[in-house]
Fold this sequence. Notes:
This protein is mainly alpha-helical. The chain has eight helices and no strands. The chain has one domain (2-154). Helix 6 crosses helix 7 (133-140).
Amino acid sequence: MAMLLGNPDLLKHIVTLDLLNDPPAGVPRFAQPVSGGFAVNIRVFRQADAQAKSRLRALLRIAIPVVVLGSGLVGFLAIGWLGLVLLIINLVIMQSTFVGSTRGSIDPAATGQAALNVKILALILYRWRAKSPSELAAWLDTEPQLKPLSDVLALMP
C-alpha cells in the first residue's frame, strides 16, 4: 500500500470521481461518519487491516515450523540419522523461497487488496475534506504518508 500511496500517478488512476460518488459495495461502511470523527474511521480501518494480517502470520508461525520439524522427524524415523538431512534441505529450501519471494513482483491479490485499501482511505479523506477541511489539514500534519492521497483528492471537484 505504501508503494501506491507514494505514487501520485497511480493514485490518480485508482481514485476517480466515479469511485468517490458511487463507491463499490463494502467500501462505504468504513467511511460512515462516527461520533469521534473521521480519524476514528481511519483508526478502525487500520485495526481491521492489521488484524487480518496478524491472523495469517499467527497461522504461518505455527504451520511452517511444524511442517519443517515434522519432515525431519519423519525422515529420522524412516531412514535414521540420514533422515535429518531432510530437515536441513527443507530449511535451505524455505530460506531460498523466502528470499526469492522478496525479489519478485507483488502478488496480484496483494496489489488488489492494497488498491482497495487506498480506495477506502480515499473515500474517508474525501468525505472528511467535504465536512471539515481545516480539521483534515491539521490531522494530515500528523500522517504525512497520506498527504499524496490528499493532494490527489484536492484536485477533484
